[in-house]
């Protein structure tokens, strides 16, 4: 396992902020030589600490300006029920995140659609018809003052 010391932590913070910065700029920001910085980044990648790099997309410009979090309760607590639900959800383009959670429901979903009408269609025609679903609660995102997802 790769040790996350103070320098590795700074590298990870910097890459989370801007993964497209050059190695030279990253090295300067974390106080290393470019070669030492590159070695550390490569080791973090090899160790799986850095799983990949992503682009942060503007949902409104892509036509997905409506965002909601949806909790889903299942009607059965079997492995087969969960697997069937997860297979169905993995095919839904509107589902950007799916988390199996503890508590009174089994899943927390992040949904992105063009607008409320698009969400209503997904809610009624996709999620609402899944035989595994017992309950659905929707939380519409009105704003995101902090969002560090990459």
Concise account of the structure shown:
The chain is an alpha+beta fold and 150 residues long. It has helices spanning 6-17, 23-30, 34-46, 79-90, 116-127, and strands at 66-74, 95-100, 107-113, 133-140. The protein contains five helices and four strands, in the order αααβαββαβ.
Keywords:
150 residues; alpha+beta; Arc Repressor Mutant, subunit A; Alpha-Beta Plaits; 2 domains; four-stranded antiparallel sheet; 5 helices; 4 strands; 38% helix; elongated
- Quaternary structure state of the chains depicted: single chain
Going by CATH, the architecture of the largest domain would be 2-Layer Sandwich
Strand-residue fraction? 15-25%
In whole angstroms, the N-to-C terminal distance is 23 Å
Individual helix count: 5
What's the overall average pLDDT, rounded?
94
CATH topology of the largest domain: Alpha-Beta Plaits
Radius of gyration: 20 Å
What is the domain total for the residues?
A: 2
In the sheet with the most strands, the strands line up as: 2-3-1-4
CATH top level assignment of the largest domain: Alpha Beta
What is the CATH superfamily of the largest domain?
A: Lrp/AsnC effector binding domain/regulation of amino acid metabolism (RAM) domain
DSSP strand tally: 4
